């Protein structure tokens, strides 16, 4: 692990479900600027464990595009698909500490057991059917107990609170908003929530900078960190980029791949999205842009709530 002068370690963690688009460029730029503004290390982690969603060739394409845009990682990229042993070990530790339990419910059973009050943004909240045993069902997934009857690790177990460096103070009641959530899925896939927490801890990540679409996952990740006895990094969630219909820009909503032959144009647009007041609106090179953008990021941070 390379230590940065400041001890800051940040990362960009794309999922290779398609080429880099403008929304992911904004996250890459913000995480890179924050690391550089803190004299920190900046790492890239390829989140390629969701087999069905991973697109062949997308990871290599993303890595090449990052280089083309001037983002050079301080360590070789890490691939989640090669780190399954770490996720297994974390689940085993959670089994030993009784933080998780096997669940035999199908999606349909969970949906049938729900009143409308138990849905949040169309997400099903698990009613806890298998918490005290499988009731003769076959185990399909592993779920993490959220803090209302979990072995307690926090003072006020009902609420997870954190200060987001961009969005300000946040809190979430995991029991009423999320319910016991899946760490190992019925199809054998490791859940994003487990992999991201295990990897951020294993890589010594101190600062997470990413899109605000993941703000809603952060309380779950903090709870999981507490259950695994690993540190909680600082969080900063930048505003997401929306398309003309107001939907978050993603491969699913038809985001265009970036034009790698004109990186400066896209980088200037990404900096504008982050509200950076660049001194030079038409930099002659990537180096000139980067120097200007790091200073603008520092000025931007000075005006944030946290
Ligand atoms: N792989 C996730 C994504 O592309 C990001 C994970 C993270 O930054 O925590 O949406």
UniProtKB/TrEMBL annotation:
Which residues are recorded as binding ATP? 251
Name the keywords, alphabetized: Aminoacyl-tRNA synthetase, ATP-binding, Ligase, Metal-binding, Nucleotide-binding, Protein biosynthesis, Zinc
Q: Which cofactor does it need?
A: Zn(2+)
Q: Supply one GO BP term.
A: tRNA modification
Q: Tell me the superkingdom of the source.
A: Bacteria
Q: Supply the source organism for this entry.
A: Paraburkholderia eburnea
Task: Summarize the protein's role.
Answer: Catalyzes the tRNA-independent activation of glutamate in presence of ATP and the subsequent transfer of glutamate onto a tRNA(Asp). Glutamate is transferred on the 2-amino-5-(4,5-dihydroxy-2-cyclopenten-1-yl) moiety of the queuosine in the wobble position of the QUC anticodon.
Q: What is this protein called?
A: Glutamyl-Q tRNA(Asp) synthetase
Q: Which residues bind Zn(2+)?
A: 103, 105, 126, 130
Q: Name one Pfam family in it.
A: tRNA-synt_1c
Where is L-glutamate bound in this sequence? 11-15, 47, 192, 210
What sequence ranges are listed for the domain Glutamyl/glutaminyl-tRNA synthetase class Ib catalytic? 9-257
E.C. numbers: 6.1.1.-
């Amino acid at each position: 692990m390379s230590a940065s002068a400041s001890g800051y370690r940040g990362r960009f963690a794309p999922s290779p479900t398609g080429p880099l688009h403008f929304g992911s460029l904004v996250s890459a730029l913000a995480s890179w600027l924050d690391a550089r503004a803190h004299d920190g290390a900046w790492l890239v982690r390829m989140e390629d464990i969701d087999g069905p969603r991973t697109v062949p060739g997308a990871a290599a394409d993303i890595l090449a595009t990052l280089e083309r845009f001037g983002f050079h990682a301080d360590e070789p990229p890490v691939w989640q698909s090669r780190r399954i042993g770490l996720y297994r070990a974390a689940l085993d530790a959670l089994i030993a500490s009784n933080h998780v339990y096997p669940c035999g419910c199908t999606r349909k059973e969970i949906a049938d057991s729900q009143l409308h009050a138990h849905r949040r943004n169309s997400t099903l909240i698990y009613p806890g059917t298998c918490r005290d045993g499988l009731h003769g069902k076959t185990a399909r997934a592993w779920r993490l107990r959220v803090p209302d009857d979990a072995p307690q690790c926090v003072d006020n177990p009902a609420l997870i609170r954190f200060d987001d460096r961009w969005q300000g103070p946040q809190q979430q009641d995991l029991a009423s908003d999320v319910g016991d959530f899946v760490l190992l899925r019925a199809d054998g896939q490791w859940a994003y929530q487990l992999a991201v927490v295990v990897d951020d801890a294993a890589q010594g990540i101190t600062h997470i900078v990413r899109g605000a679409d993941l703000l809603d996952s952060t309380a779950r990740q903090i709870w999981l960190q507490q259950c695994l006895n690993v540190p909680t990094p600082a969080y900063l969630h930048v505003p997401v980029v929306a398309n003309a219909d107001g939907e978050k820009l993603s491969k699913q909503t038809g985001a265009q791949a970036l034009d790698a032959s004109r990186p400066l144009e896209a980088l200037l647009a990404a900096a504008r999205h982050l509200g950076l007041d660049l001194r030079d609106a038409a930099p002659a090179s990537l180096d000139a842009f980067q120097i200007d953008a790091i200073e603008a990021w520092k000025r931007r941070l000075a005006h944030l709530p946290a």
